Amino acid sequence: MGSGPNSKPKLVEGSLGYVLEDVPHLSDFIPHLPTYSNPLQDNPAYSVVKQYFVNVDDSVPEKIIAHKDSARGVHFRRAGPRQKVYFESDEVEAAIVTCGGLCPGLNTVIRELVCGLYNMYGVKTVLGINGGYKGFYAHNTITLSPKNVNDIHKRGGTILGSSRGGHDTTKIVDSIQDRGINQVYIIGGDGTQRGAAKIFEEITRRGLKVAVVGIPKTIDNDIPVIDKSFGFDTAVEEAQRAINAAHVEAESIENGIGVVKLMGRYSGFIAMFATLASRDVDCCLIPESPFYLEGPGGLYEFVERRLKENGHMVLVIAEGAGQELFTVSMQTMDASGNKLLQDVGLWISQNLKDHFAKEKIMPINLKYIDPTYMIRAVPSNASDNVYCTLLAQSAVHGAMAGYTGFTSGLVNGRQTYIPFYRIGEGPNKVVITDRMWARLLSSTNQPSFLISKGGNEDKKEEAPLDKLNGHCSDKK
Ligand SMILES: Nc1ncnc2c1ncn2[C@@H]1O[C@H](COP(=O)(O)OP(=O)(O)OP(=O)(O)O)[C@@H](O)[C@H]1O
Ligand SMILES: O=P(O)(O)OC[C@H]1O[C@](O)(CO)[C@@H](O)[C@@H]1O
Ligand SMILES: [Mg+2]
Hints:
By secondary structure, the protein is α/β, with parallel strands linked by helices. The protein has two domains: 10-229 and 382-423, Rossmann fold (3-Layer(aba) Sandwich), CATH 3.40.50.450; 232-378 and 446-473, Phosphofructokinase domain (Rossmann fold), CATH 3.40.50. It has helices at 26-29, 106-121, 135-138, 169-179, 190-206, 232-251, 269-278, 299-310, 344-358, 372-376, 382-400, 420-423, 435-444, 465-468, and strands spanning 10-13, 18-22, 36-37, 59-61, 73-78, 84-85, 94-98, 126-129, 141-144, 183-188, 211-216, 256-262, 283-285, 312-318, 365-369, 406-411, 414-419. Residues 100, 189-191, 218 line the site of magnesium ion.
């Protein structure tokens, strides 16, 4: 079999610079696979829909801004049902696994995968893998049916459980092979999708007829290529409750400061969108935009000015912001190899209190709110539920049509199949030279922290984090 097809991009070139970054297909590496008519054509719900099946050549452009003479650029295969399928209904043994941190909508995706397989394609065997990747070889499976997933979308979390670490490709693929699983639906973030790519490589190396499908999940919105990840809108909406509380507290007391820490390990999307949505936020700090405390243009100067102007202020900080400012570095990793972060919310709160007390500028009243896990643990809102449904149904259509080694994702508002290597190409981050960050700066009128970093040198004055770690509540 040689190296798997995923290691070599499958590119189709057309005229005027058109490039299709295609996804692998089972028939690329297993010859003479039989095909069957799509059972959807006999499904009363769909049989009347005109052009329900996607044209085999349909693709979606990665970039939709074009110039008169620009090349057509990269495209992805359009998701959706095909005329021909590569699995018979009673042949399918599907498995679903959820990996990484929680995210609103996980249960909705599970539900819609199960219901999509049952109701659209007549599949009757769907297994849930307990506890993430390691569940393939260390836990039991549970049988999933439309009946037992019926109302799980109303609950946060994942009914399957999740985990970090424990990706042992050989053991996972052994388990897939031993159980006779031939469609694997893997729901998770960037790490999970990299793990899915390895499973796919091993499956193609063994020549198995198994479709490996990723469904992108991350509350941080840090997965590249896709428009946004499911659960992100819910997270932004839920963050409003914490920001509102911080604002109410801050404006009800003299020189009140409300500090809210939101998730975002490497990417500040939740903080940025929650700030833009709220309009009560005076300053938003994210990992992509380094800031400093002391001196002209620094945070202390801005906070003092805002308090003098308005008598109160709200500061939103993403958990990955300002990590470079800590005097004590904590080089610990979680089981997946993600760097564990120091509690920047607690740190910034303590530094603000110390600064205003030491400099005798004015007495401040600071309230620190850390809603991070509350935001992640809620069920998804209505629009995320719809989004989860489309992602799950697209994933099922793709697997039934024989595509494999792909992530089901929304690109420019259209459902597509994206090759794994594009999803694994590095985190999606807020680009601070783009318009969205400029919109935020003009909405909050906060400093850009780009002009002078002179005041940043006096870091010795800031309370070292190791002294504060005793108060940390969210890192074990
Ligand atoms: N490069 C990799 N190769 C194989 N497996 C990986 C890789 N990176 C991560 N994994 C596995 O994927 C699973 C989830 O990874 P991780 O904890 O990084 O979360 P994630 O999927 O990125 O989600 P999130 O960051 O949104 O919580 C873990 O079981 C981990 O072992
Ligand atoms: O669940 P854990 O391991 O505490 O991880 C928390 C991390 O997970 C995420 O929610 C998603 O990666 C990050 O925002 C956060 O840093
Ligand atoms: Mg991740």
